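Work Package 4 report. The design task specified in the project plan requires that, given a folded chain encoded as structure tokens, an amino acid be chosen for each position. We show below one input record used in the internal validation round.
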């Protein structure tokens, strides 16, 4: 047959007959496949041995395989079959005129159209098996994809030509391919092959779980197997990811439109914001799937009510949980029990339990709603819950049960734990929650300190009364005060290290405040330079002794020593200018120093004139006005003077 065709084409005068002969024999084609023989759809390696000492055979001597179009289809060589049809199409429509095509070649055109239809059917069958591990042929799918590309190029060539294309052009097989894969994905999601896991799941949860598992398994198959059949530029992984994303999104939209119970609502949110992103972020998909381009599975108008329902439920659970924690602590106190001791310190589980609950809820919610600031809404009830803790704290102090002091010491430890988590884990809370709770904690700490320190101050009152008197100045009764402090603070033991440190620091400040208040009361009169120098030495010595004592007990309020040292310097100085400079230094360090305080201090120096006192106060006010507000710790605002 081949020789007959060659004979026809060798004669110019019978070229028309040659074309007719060609069309009658169009089911045959000569294809050169070096070293490969194909017969009845099967590939077999040809013998390729070369005897020693002999050159390989020349190219024209290599084995030739003659295939029919039907044989390429049977062998699933779809790209070769496509190429055959394209060649026939080019010969048929490239060599005849439009008039000739209308008159003489209807049979050839019909045969070519039929072959294209047959190839198209086989191509669709091949695509149908793409996601079925037991059925897909990698070679056939690769050949099918190549055929689609070839036909797309042929469509483009016809688009660029001036002539009338055949009826089957453009074939648009890329669009056909996309629609077929979309249908394939739809079928697989309609009938997931992965059954839902055993367990107590609702029908909605089971459906979502099966859909998600099918999506995950199919995308992994695409990445591991199907991807190898496609050229890189077709980006098949992202294409499949988009199809599955759209399909799952559509199904979840229908579910989200129903009124869901809290468990189904939470499960749906977890799939949208946690489980689904985790699938797309698997290492296997790195560089293959653009998860960001896919977007959310559900739009905001459907997500918002689901999130609101979930977060509201979480708030209720937090309120119930914290209420239960506080109630258990209250029952223990009411029953007269002592708090638990750890390392000789009273401790309460209240802060730890609440902090763990809040941390777990907010961290989990941030994943479920996919947004940390939204998850912070859960902690809104803490403002009221912390106030409930404060009320319990107040009841303990009011009723003064035998175990009340122990519980207050334990609560001080809780306060430190709460303050620490508000500072170091601010991402868990909204700003207004942190601010409100911090104010409540400050109030609780101050009231707890007052409750524990009141008996100490009551015991020290006899020694306080001697401060600022001639007895204090002449007999050094301050030593008795220090001994009494050492004895009384023993009863303050029992709170955690951090809270005890602050309690001792509070006592340190209050004793220093009492010292200055008694001194400024003016019972002792420093009439001359000698008495003022003696007062300077006494106050300075007391400042050193007080600092050493409280530092040894854990106080970190070393700045209080500076208050007494500066006051002592004012008492020592004689000329007005030097006093002015020292008072300005004192006022700059402690801006809450008032003219009333300065006046009381200078009145101790009875040889200091009224005009001098006025000049010092005016200088101080001018200096403070220039300096403006500072962040120095307040001290004199707690020292009341007449």
């Amino acid at each position: 047959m081949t020789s007959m065709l060659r004979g026809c084409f060798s004669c110019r005068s019978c070229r028309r007959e040659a074309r007719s002969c060609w069309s009658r024999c169009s089911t045959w084609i000569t294809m050169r496949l070096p070293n490969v023989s194909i017969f009845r759809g099967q590939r077999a390696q040809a013998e390729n041995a070369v005897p020693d000492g002999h050159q390989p055979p020349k190219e024209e001597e290599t084995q030739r395989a003659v295939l029919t179009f039907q044989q390429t289809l049977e062998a699933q060589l779809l790209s070769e079959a496509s190429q055959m049809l394209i060649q026939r199409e080019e010969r048929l429509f490239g060599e005849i005129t439009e008039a000739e095509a209308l008159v003489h070649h209807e049979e050839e055109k019909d045969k070519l159209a039929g072959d294209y239809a047959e190839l198209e059917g086989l191509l669709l069958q091949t695509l149908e098996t793409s996601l079925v591990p037991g059925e897909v042929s990698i070679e056939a799918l690769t050949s099918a994809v190549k055929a689609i590309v070839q036909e797309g190029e042929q469509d483009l060539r016809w688009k660029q030509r001036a002539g009338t294309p055949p009826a089957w052009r453009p074939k648009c097989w890329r669009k056909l391919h996309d629609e077929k894969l979309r249908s394939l994905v739809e079928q697989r999601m309609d009938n997931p092959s992965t059954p839902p896991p055993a367990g107590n799941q609702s029908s909605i949860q089971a459906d979502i779980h099966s859909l998600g598992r099918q999506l995950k398994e199919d995308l992994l198959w695409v990445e591991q197997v199907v991807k190898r059949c496609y050229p890189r530029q077709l980006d098949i992984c992202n294409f499949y990811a988009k199809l599955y994303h759209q399909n799952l999104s559509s199904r979840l939209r229908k579910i989200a439109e129903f009124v869901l119970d809290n468990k189904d609502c939470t499960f749906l949110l977890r799939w949208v914001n946690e489980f689904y992103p985790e699938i797309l972020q698997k290492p296997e998909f790195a560089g293959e799937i653009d998860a960001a381009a896919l977007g959310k599975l559900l739009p905001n108008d459907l997500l918002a009510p689901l999130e609101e329902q979930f977060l509201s439920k979480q708030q209720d659970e937090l309120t119930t949980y914290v209420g239960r924690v506080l109630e258990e602590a209250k029952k223990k106190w009411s029953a007269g029990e002592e708090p638990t001791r750890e390392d000789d310190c009273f401790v309460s589980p209240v802060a730890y339990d609440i902090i763990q609950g809040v941390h777990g809820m907010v961290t989990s919610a941030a994943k479920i709603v996919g947004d940390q600031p939204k998850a912070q809404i859960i902690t809104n009830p803490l403002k009221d819950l912390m106030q409930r803790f404060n009320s319990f704290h107040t009841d303990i102090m009011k009723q003064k049960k035998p175990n009340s002091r122990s519980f207050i010491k334990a609560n001080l430890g809780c306060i430190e734990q709460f303050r620490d988590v508000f500072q170091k884990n601010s991402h868990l809370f909204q700003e207004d929650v942190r601010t409100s709770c911090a104010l409540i904690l400050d109030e609780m700490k101050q009231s707890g300190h007052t409750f524990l320190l009141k008996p100490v101050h009551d015991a020290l009152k006899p020694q306080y009364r001697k401060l600022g008197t001639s007895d204090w100045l002449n007999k050094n009764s301050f030593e008795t005060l220090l001994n009494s402090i050492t004895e009384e603070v023993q009863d303050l033991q029992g709170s955690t290290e951090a809270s005890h440190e602050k309690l001792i620091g509070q006592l340190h400040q209050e004793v220093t405040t009492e010292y200055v208040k008694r001194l400024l009361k003016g019972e002792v009169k420093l009439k001359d330079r000698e008495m003022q120098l003696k007062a300077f030495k006494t106050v300075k010595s007391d400042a050193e002794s007080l600092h050493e004592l409280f530092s040894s007990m854990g106080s970190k309020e070393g700045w209080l020593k500076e208050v007494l040292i500066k006051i002592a310097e004012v008492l020592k100085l004689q000329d007005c200018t030097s006093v002015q400079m020292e008072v300005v230094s004192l006022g700059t360090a402690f801006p809450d120093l008032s003219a009333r305080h300065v006046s009381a201090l200078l009145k101790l120096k009875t040889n200091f004139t009224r005009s001098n006192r006025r000049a010092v106060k005016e200088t101080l006010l001018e200096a403070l006005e220039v300096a403006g507000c500072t962040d120095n710790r307040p001290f004199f605002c707690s020292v009341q003077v007449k």
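Residues 192-295 form one domain. Validation will be extended to a larger panel in the next phase.
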